[in-house]
Protein: Huntingtin
Organism: Rhipicephalus microplus
Amino acid sequence: MASIEKLIKSFEALKVVQPSTGGEEPLHKKKKQCHLKRRRLHIVPTLQMLFALQAYGLTQIFLNFWAFLWKAFFCCDDEDSDVRMMADECLNRTIKTLLDSHLGRLQAELYKEIKKNGPGRSLRVALGKFGDLCHLIKTQKCRAYTVNLIPCFVRISQRSEEESVQEALTNTVVRAMPMLGQFTNDNDIKMLLRAFLPNLSCPSALVRRCAALSLVTVCQWSRRPNVFLLWLLNDLFSLVLPVQENHPAHTVVGVLVCFRHLIPHLGSKPTKEMPALKGAEKSGPTLEHFLKIYELLLYHVSSTDQTVVTAALEALNQLLT
């Protein structure tokens, strides 16, 4: 009981040590911030240690405080880099401690943080940790996670101005789809594709690359990969054809980057780890589709924009390899 009380006091102290935004003198404000930093650096590892020790003999009281305590570890959004580093390290230790005994609860709490779609730093941490654990999701819970995660991914994909968030989202999609893809239906896949497609036109090169990889990964691990790869291919054509029209350079580059990721999977057969619906393997691109890709790439090789030329050459190399 004493441990529980100490945990609660530590968490309450952590909530109190938030820097105020009122008008203060610079020197006084700086001293106050240093004091708050020292307190946070002391409280966060204390929470982690007590949380881990109590976890070995969880009582019903402790279980009731789980969600309450978990929020303390998302000091990863703190303005101070030392506090963020300490919080991330403590979170890693806590996950390692509880991995064998409370895996399901860990996954559920990480999902809740993803669902909040909160500050970028905390969201990146939640996405990263969930990506590390998603391959351990129990089969009977995969469909439930699929149904609940897809709307979250769609909302997060709309934060295209935050490069690091999009990169974290893509890493999670790449890790989660091999496990959850077989539990999706056609509407789930279409929802994800429609969410990531607009990001191919983003001014940020990193966001475009992330969108391209996410699009191909979603199709690749769906239950009907060839069908959705072809669906994606036709959507890409619609973004840059006819070539006589002046399409934005960002869009053209995004499509070419997506071609580079897409080409190796066109016409491929599902693997044992990637089961497809009966008859789905019969659908796929024809020779006409490959010729259209080839002609489109040749056209953009002669572009005056060096970025477009580079993207076209990389995709062409992938096509001819």
